[in-house]
Request: fold
Amino acid sequence: MLELRAITAGYDRRTPVVRDVSLSVEPGEAVGLLGPSGCGKSTLARVAALLHRPDSGTVLLDGEPVHRWRHRAPRAHRTAFGVVFQQPRLSVDPRLRLTDLMAEPLRATGRRNEIPDRVAELATAVGLTPDLLTRRPHEVSDGQLQRACLARALVLRPRWLICDEITAMLDASTSAALVAAVEDYRAETGAGLLAVGHDHALLNRWCGRLVRWDDLGPAA
Amino acid sequence: MTSVVLSVRGLSVRFLMPGGRRIAAVTDAHFDVTAGECLALIGESGCGKSVLASALLGLLPANAQTAGEAHLADLDLLAADERTLARTVRGRRIGLIPQSPAAHLTPVRTIRSQLEETVAALRGVQGRKALRAAAEEAAERAAFPADHLDRHPHELSGGLAQRAATALALVGDAPLLLADEPTTGLDRDLVDHTVDELRRHVDTADRALLMITHDLAAAERIADRVAVMYAGRIVELTDAAAFFGETGPRHPYSRGLLAALPDRAFTPIPGMPPELGALPDGCAFAARCDRTTAACTAVPHLTDAVACHHPHVPEGIRA
Reply:
């Protein structure tokens, strides 16, 4: 269970973006968080992924409170999360080939021997063809790069997936393909999902439970 | 009503790459845009939509080769020299509404100063007072609030930045507006709002609007006609009401795109689009299509609004 309790977070202590918000995701559950631009939903997603330390409030991972964030978080916590961001171009190292991009989490955790099998398996799962894997980000389209970003998020078999507007830049067919890949992974592993977005039709179709930003926490 | 503003005939764009590779970004595009009409050009990212827009504005990089014609009234945009394009076309005869207004605006200057500069350059307004009044009037046309004029771009929300960019595009009273993905990154309410405003600018001054987008919902809301682009070719060019309505599109790719919407079947089209540098012979969509036959090894031409050997036939005609 991933629990966010009374989270207040932001980039300036005097004007927090997120005020006293609580949200929980059960294992295997898909929660869609719906809110307008600039409401703070991406910040909350970053807190949930342990990428942003909240000003106050607690994050509980399977009942244990989290004390450390970002690179200071223990490896077991960091590898429990797979995160996919809105803009694939801004979330990859432009020097890495797609295959290295997808394998990087395995390298970082000392599991190099798993790379060939796992990368090939994931490339199929997200729909990347072998000739694309040797390219660098500037040689592929946004949709293809986002597929690689999804593969990178899944490579360590995370128990929790955080998807922050992952289809906002993409056309309808690529969006549907990415969502199908996420759902295949979840069906296989029982991972929980927090999907953040502003597209009601998409999240309604994708997620088992839909939460509106305005309904979270005490009336802000 | 029938005055054609932009007439594109056989437009093709090739990029010459190192090692003699050629990228076929746009191939043989034919379409017209008339006054008071919005044509939505839809397709997935990397299919050549934005290259087409750049070609019309003469903003292609040096390694691009163009063929065909694009007439804006009596002027062929593809044959025009840089001097003509810079002094008489951009801003004056074609207004560009950019993909990312936040990146399009100058970050270190206020919206007022940018509007005043544009008004001075395009309309020859002189004198501080006159400029100030003209800039305020220009802002008002795009419904940009006057009390935000002295802000810098980073102090504006996405919707207001979009209006600022639209205000700049409208200053020159261009008969043709070119909107390149104007709604990317905006939420649904803002998309609707932006699109409705664009529509208003088309209707009030009888402008022509070519809107490039991958957002089918936005296209449905605004467009009179829809052109679907796949792998550099326009594969279907049809009436928007029929395309999004009960009749539905006729090209299998267009049908697949609509079926991928979350409020429809939500099933992706299998496979991925071909590389523009290594297009297959024949129909580029054949590898992903469920209606492929031997005929698909020949390139289908756009006849009767659709470029396919086996288009879907509307129910009414089949009987």
Summary: Chain B is about 30% helix and 20% strand. Residues 33 and 86 of chain B are 22 Å apart (CA to CA). The first strand of chain B starts at residue 4 and ends at 16. Chain B has a mean pLDDT of 89.
